[in-house]
Amino acid sequence: MDIDSIKKFLEKIGEPKYRLMQIIKAVYKDRILNFDEITTIPKNLRDALFKSFKILPFDEEKIFNTRITPLQKGMRPIKSLLRLADGNKIETVILPNENGWTACISTQAGCALGCKFCATGKMGFKRNLTSEEIADQILYWRGLLQVVGDMSTCRLRVNSQHCEKEACLRGQVRCGITNIVYMGMGEPFLNWENTKKSLKNLTDKNMFAFGSRSISISTAGIPDGIINFAKNFPQMNLAVSLHAANDKKRSELMPINKKHNLNDLKNAILEYFKLTN
């Protein structure tokens, strides 16, 4: 949700300042994804917001089970293809874990790095995602998953029949997003400002309220990005996509290695450990 634009809109039409927090609570805490369902604000305001804004900055084009071997008994990761307002498309995935789901989110439409093993790299770079387009992939999944052991509220099972999680049938699981990995489409550190803002939103107690330790960022190896990440978010987790232990092979697989070789990457990681330990 584009909070900055909604804030300006509310100020322009003379609404009291507390209206914004009412809307934020309804969306991020109560998981209401339609303005006309927010009953804590006046109907005329609901109508005005509904006409002028969308809570989610994309539309669901397709949702499907992956063909990966089940990670748990009868359970596979679930992928969704999302269509952005300008027609570009991104993918987001949830993977089952013991306590709920791990969400894998994208930071760019396409990618400029061209890694040989990556389907996204073959697309080329389209554009950076906004901070809302990044963080709201979590809002999207939250809107689909049940809240607390109530199977009737879970659209993944009731409408789409994608979820086979046995614990849901017994009402024994809080089936929500417990972990987030920035391992979808794009290189997070090449969209740093929007990635940084999305991380702040995900850990904001008035919004998503995730703990820092539950969030990981994966990089193909951008030294400045690794150091900036350590300085800004020392409690979050870093993953590095290595794929080869010598420069010749790694450069064949990952062209970014020609610009930032393994020695550059090693030095950045050593600095990362100094800043985070």
TrEMBL record:
Signal peptide: none
Necessary cofactors: [4Fe-4S] cluster
Domain called Radical SAM core: residue spans: 97-277
GO molecular function: 4 iron, 4 sulfur cluster binding; catalytic activity; metal ion binding
Origin: domain of life: Bacteria
Keyword Transmembrane helix among record annotations: no
Keywords: 4Fe-4S, Iron, Iron-sulfur, Metal-binding, rRNA processing, S-adenosyl-L-methionine
Gene Ontology biological process terms in this record: rRNA base methylation; tRNA methylation
Protein name: Radical SAM core domain-containing protein
